[in-house]
TrEMBL record:
Lineage: Bacteria, Bacillati, Actinomycetota, Actinomycetes, Streptosporangiales
Organism: Actinomadura barringtoniae
Residues involved in Zn(2+) binding: H280, H284, E359
Transmembrane intervals: 68-92, 104-124, 152-170, 177-200, 290-312
Protein name: M48 family metallopeptidase
Xref: InterPro entries: CAXX_Prtase_1 (IPR027057), Peptidase_M48 (IPR001915), Peptidase_M48_N (IPR032456)
Length: 433
C-alpha cells in the first residue's frame, strides 16, 4: 500500500496547489481599484442606521448566536464521535445486520447516519427557527417547516447515497488506485451538479413564474443587454411562503441564464433598488463567478479524494473507527462522513473570505453599471434592515458565517465609488448628523 499512498500524497499536493493558483489569480483582492480622493470612507452603521435599527440588529444577533454556535459545535462533535470511535460502525452494523448486498448496506449506512445527524441538529434548528419567527423573518408554520426539513434530508440522502455508491464501487474494484478514478468522477460530478442544481433542486423548494411583461421586466432585460450579459428570462420565486428576506440571483449559463427575483422584492422595494440588486447579480455573471467557483470546487473535491486515500488507509484511524479490515467495507461510512465534514468545515472560512471579495466586486460592478450610489446605499440599508443583518460582525462571525461584507462596509464602498467618479456622495440616511 506504500506506492499508492505516496502517489496519492503527490496528487493531493498538486491539486491543492492548483486550487491555490486559481484562487490567487481569480480572486479580486482589490474589488474597487484605484485611490479614493479624500481617503477611503470608514464603515459606520450610525451614519445610515437609526438607533432602533442598530439595537434590533444587535438583539437579533445575540438571540441567534447561541443556537448557531451550539448547533455547529454539537453537530461536529456528533459526526466526530460517530466517525472516530467504534460507535458509528456499530450503528451501521446493527442497522444493516439483515442486509446482505454491499450497495444496500452503503445506502442504509448513509440513510441512518445522515438521519441521526439531522436529528442531533434538529433542536438547534427549531430554536433558530423560533427566533426567526419571533423577529418576523420566517413566514412558515411548523408543518411547512417540517416538510422543508424532510425535503432537505431527502436531497441530502440522495446526494450522499449516489456519491458513496460511486466511491465504494471504485474502492472495492480497484483497492489500490480507486482514488484516481474517484477524483476524476468527483471533479465531473461537481461540474454536473453546478449545472443541474438550478433546474433539479431549486424547484423542490420553490415555485417559479415569469415576471409579467411591464416596465420592470423591460428595464431589467435592457440593463442586462447594456451590460453585455445575455439573459433569457426574468423569473419570480415564491420565497414569501418561507421568509420575508429580500434576495435575487442569476443562475444558469449562456442561453439558459435567467434572473430570479424573490417575490418579497416585488411587494415594496422600489424598482430602482431592484435594478441595483440585479446589477450586482449581473456582475457575478459577467465575471463568471459561478464558473470559476465550480472549477475551484471541483479541483478541491478531487484533491480531497486523494487525501482521503491517505486517511482511509491509515491503520490507526481504521482501528480507532472499527472501520473493517478492507477498504470499501460499508462499516467505514461513518469514518468517511467524519473526514469529509471536518474537511468541509476547515474550508468554510477560506470560502467565506474569497466570497466576500467576490461580492464586493459585484457591488463595484453594480455601481459602474447603474452609476447610482444613492439608490445603492438605500438598497443596502433596506437589505440590512429587512434581513436583520449583523451591522458590526466580530472576527469569529466573519470567519464562520459572513459570505458578504457587512451592510455598512458595502455602503462605505458606494461612497468611495462616488468620490472616485465625482458623483454626488450618498448623504447619511439618518438625518441630523
Ligand atoms: Zn452577490
Amino acid at each position: 500500500m506504500r506506492r499508492p499512498r505516496v502517489a496519492a500524497a503527490i496528487a493531493a499536493a498538486l491539486l491543492f496547489a492548483a486550487v491555490g493558483v486559481v484562487l490567487a489569480l481569480t480572486t479580486p483582492w482589490d474589488p474597487l481599484p484605484g485611490s479614493v480622493p479624500g481617503g477611503e470612507v470608514k464603515p459606520d452603521p450610525k451614519l445610515d442606521f437609526t438607533h432602533a435599527e442598530i439595537a434590533r440588529s444587535q438583539a437579533f444577533d445575540s438571540a441567534i448566536n447561541p443556537p448557531a454556535y451550539l448547533g455547529l459545535i454539537i453537530g461536529l462533535v456528533a459526526v466526530l464521535v460517530l466517525g472516530l470511535t467504534p460507535l458509528g460502525s456499530r450503528l451501521i452494523g446493527w442497522s444493516t445486520a439483515r442486509v446482505r448486498r454491499w450497495p444496500l448496506r452503503v445506502v442504509g449506512a448513509a440513510l441512518v447516519l445522515t438521519t441521526v445527524l439531522r436529528l442531533v441538529g434538529l433542536p438547534f434548528d427549531i430554536w433558530s427557527e423560533s427566533i426567526l419567527r419571533r423577529y418576523g423573518l420566517s413566514t412558515q408554520n411548523w408543518g411547512e417547516w417540517l416538510i422543508d426539513q424532510a425535503k432537505s434530508l431527502a436531497v441530502t440522502w440522495v446526494i450522499w447515497s449516489v456519491a458513496l455508491l460511486l466511491l465504494y464501487a471504485l474502492m472495492r474494484r480497484f483497492p489500490r488506485y480507486w482514488w484516481t478514478g474517484a477524483a476524476v468522477t468527483g471533479f465531473a460530478l461537481v461540474v454536473a451538479v453546478s449545472f443541474i442544481y438550478p433546474v433539479a433542486v431549486e424547484p423542490v423548494f420553490n415555485k417559479f413564474h415569469k415576471l409579467p411583461q411591464g416596465q420592470l421586466r423591460t428595464d431589467l432585460l435592457a440593463m442586462a443587454q447594456r451590460d453585455g450579459v445575455p439573459v433569457k428570462d426574468v423569473l419570480v420565486a415564491d420565497a414569501s411562503r418561507r421568509t420575508t428576506a429580500l434576495n435575487a440571483y442569476v443562475s444558469g449559463f449562456g442561453s439558459t441564464r435567467r434572473i430570479v427575483l424573490y417575490d418579497t422584492l416585488l411587494k415594496s422595494t422600489p424598482p430602482r433598488q431592484i435594478e441595483s440588486i440585479i446589477a450586482h447579480e449581473l456582475g457575478h455573471a459577467k465575471h463568471k463567478d459561478v464558473l470559476w467557483g465550480t472549477l475551484i470546487g471541483a479541483l478541491g473535491v478531487a484533491g480531497a479524494i486523494c487525501l482521503l486515500q491517505l486517511l482511509l488507509t491509515s491503520p490507526a484511524l481504521r482501528r480507532r473507527a472499527a472501520a473493517g479490515g478492507r477498504l470499501g467495507d460499508p462499516l467505514s461510512v461513518a469514518l468517511l462522513l467524519a473526514l469529509i465534514t471536518v474537511a468541509t468545515q476547515i474550508g468554510t472560512p477560506v470560502q467565506n473570505l474569497i466570497s466576500r471579495h467576490i461580492e464586493a466586486r459585484a457591488d463595484a460592478h453594480a455601481l459602474d453599471l447603474t452609476r447610482d450610489p444613492v439608490t445603492f446605499t438605500q438598497m443596502q440599508h433596506e437589505l440590512s434592515v429587512r434581513n436583520i443583518s449583523d451591522l458590526t460582525p466580530n472576527e469569529l462571525e466573519y470567519l464562520l458565517w459572513l459570505t458578504h461584507p457587512a451592510g455598512p462596509e458595502r455602503i462605505a464602498m458606494a461612497r468611495d465609488w462616488a468620490r472616485q467618479h465625482h458623483v454626488t456622495e450618498p448623504p447619511p440616511l439618518v438625518q441630523g448628523r
